[in-house]
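seq as requested:
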Amino acid sequence: MSNIVKRCLRISYVVFAFCSALFFGFLKGLTVGPVAGLILILGNVGVILGLFPSHVYWTVYSIIKTNRFDIPLKIAFLFALPALFAVWLGIGIAGSVIVGIGYGCFTPWVSTFEAFRQDTEVKKFIHCVVDGTWGTIKGSCTVVRDFVDVCYHSYPVYLKELREGNASSDEPQTLRLIHVPACIIVGLVGLIVEIPLYTAIAIVKSPYMLFKGWHRLLHDLVTREGPFFETACIPVAGLTILLWPLIVIGSILLSIFSGIFIGLYGSAVVYQERSFRRGMAYVIAMVAEFDEYTNDWLYLREGSILPKPQYRKKWVSQSTEFSVGGSKGKSSSVSVEAPAILVPRLTPSRSVRETIQEVKMVQIWGLMMKSCEIKGKELLDANIITTADLDQWLKTKDSDEAAIVGIGLPSYSFLHFLLYSIKSGAGGLLLDSVEVTHLNRPQDRLLDWFFHPFMVLKDQIKVINMGESEVRFLEKVLLFGSDTQRMKAWENGSVVPQDALRAAQIQGISRRLTGITKGVSKFPTYRRKFHHVVKTLIRYSLEAVPSGSNLINSVTSIDNV
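struct tokens:
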């Protein structure tokens, strides 16, 4: 009898907690949501419209100046730019509005339900009332700041790399004039075909996805699996059940969004295959591919009843820069496929314990920045880098203009955590005391872009087995790059390898590590976090320099921006 009473009390508590959190979340969503949403919408739309003329100019200028494309291919890109910019404006503004409304409304709710993870009842009540208020407003400002960094810093860096491509080492991409109309026609046909058909397929299958998802969540609730494994997480999982229809609607919108880019990719297929017919075959085949993928993800019948013509004459292979050669020194290759389709998959939920074991992306960012800060302080103490170097990075828009801090310092830091991972015998990447492996790494697409290259580079460094003097030489090359005077001035016990093959291997590692650093620096949150690290290093360096008032004022003014 007592067990029944305890179970009833527990159920009553969960129902009361859920209703209370629902009420507080709704109240905060009405008060805080409009403010946070308006900040995000006005900020992002203002950035899109304000930088639009500059984006048009930068893009056109880069296409004209680059040596990577021949004249017909440049003409094709210039003809396609108006449509691409129209798509950018439409998706950018509509996406900002949707994200702003969703962020402002649902972030306070989610933060309220997350408060039930606290230990004591008092903490739960306090966090239930406080969480999701000021933090939501600050979060919307952070999103706008990261969006500015992407549009104002990262995009020009991509264009600069496009303009400065070495035509002597990279053979220019060519396109016959006869294929220019074909690329344009197939791209337009792809938009006309893919968007309505993807929308129709997603809408037709959305009821099944709705009830299938509810069945999955209710099954976890009854069996106490997945998000319902711990009592503290039940309110959050209950909110997921309520919001599942919105997730289904979001998947439909993502399908439409995917259809735009998959349709436009038909132009690339025409260019790669040099065939109008195969481009049209791609447009038809992608509808069947989408139908087949959704069948797989929703556990429906295998395959598709729609036609799926072949649009590739052969596998197109590209050697990867970060591949590890086999026994004969051949690099691995990957086949070029169509872009991935954005649809959530209804897989059984992982338990809370499994989720806790996964390293979070924010944790990786924090550990990486902490490593940069520690190595920066060591270099400042040794007078290897100066406060002027740090201040120069703060004043420049492009990291290449202040490469010692913008590229050299993070590359130097990344090298040391690779060496630390190797010396510790870790199977993955060892950041401080956290080991990131293929099993516990965050399931984040951005992380995928540099996690595998880091792992391959770690194996390459381990294979060549550098000596202490060679490591010191690599440190010099990474930190100072082409600044030979600074390299000579730093007496760190390095020795330039006399063996030409050995020197080429080390230089190759430095180029790859620098390339990874440049790629990571384009990520949305990187510049904001590294900006904070640089300001911290400047304050650290000025603690023993009373005459550095000008730099202190400079940092203070930047803090107030």
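The first helix runs from residue 2 to 31.
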